[in-house]
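Review session, final week

We close the course with one last complete record, chosen because it touches almost every idea we covered. It is Glycerophosphodiester phosphodiesterase, a protein from Virgibacillus kekensis with 244 residues. Go through it on your own first, then we will talk.
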Amino acid sequence: MTKIFAHRGSAGTHPENTMASYREAKRVGADGIELDVHLTSDGKLAVIHDETVDRTTNGTGHIKDFTLAELKELDAGSWFTSEFSGETIPELGEVLAWVKQEKLLVNIELKNVFYLDYPGIEENVLQEVNRYGLKEQTVISSFNHIGLNTVRRLDSEIDCAILYSEKLYQPWNYAKTLGSTSLHPHLYGMNDEMIQYAEQIGCPVRPFTINEEQQIEKFIRLGCSAIITDFPERAVILREAISR
């Protein structure tokens, strides 16, 4: 059965990458959550998508220039609606403790892309995953494929997934060169035959970001291992309807 990963939590209905968004994903029946991590100035792992706080908080500046304590002082909910005033930027460990309690899957996206280096982020993330005993429930993904290869060199077992938007030739073979085990393509990054072939050879496909009902139904019927969506409730309802 196709798993439902809630993209940044239930990002279509709640402020992304907040505990409110993750709790909503759990409430509506998602199998797991997807989240993003950056490294703070004091070496902590902050859960937020952008490299700056400008879009999703009442602050300004780059994540790398804040301590975790300084980030925690920002309001990460009011930008969405006043109902979520006071939501904060979570620390990765905070979310993982909750994931363990709720018995969910988690997809951790490393945001060390473009000009962001974040030395040691791969090792730090793995330490947190192991601290909470979540390796079997975790997928680590990134557009930084060098970083993913670093994850594989540090851990030979954890599920690693390449994120990509382009139409790659035989992406399952490319993924192997990095030691990656799964594919997280943009929704237009693979055609139907490629998806079905990858799944047949044991290479899980989890496309993003699958929000429209027609798209959700298509990828479930194709047999994708999972989909990543901003609207997990919508996806769960459709999956149930298809399985009847």
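Two points worth writing down before the exam:
The longest helix spans residues 232-243.
The chain has nine helices and eight strands.
Good luck, everyone.
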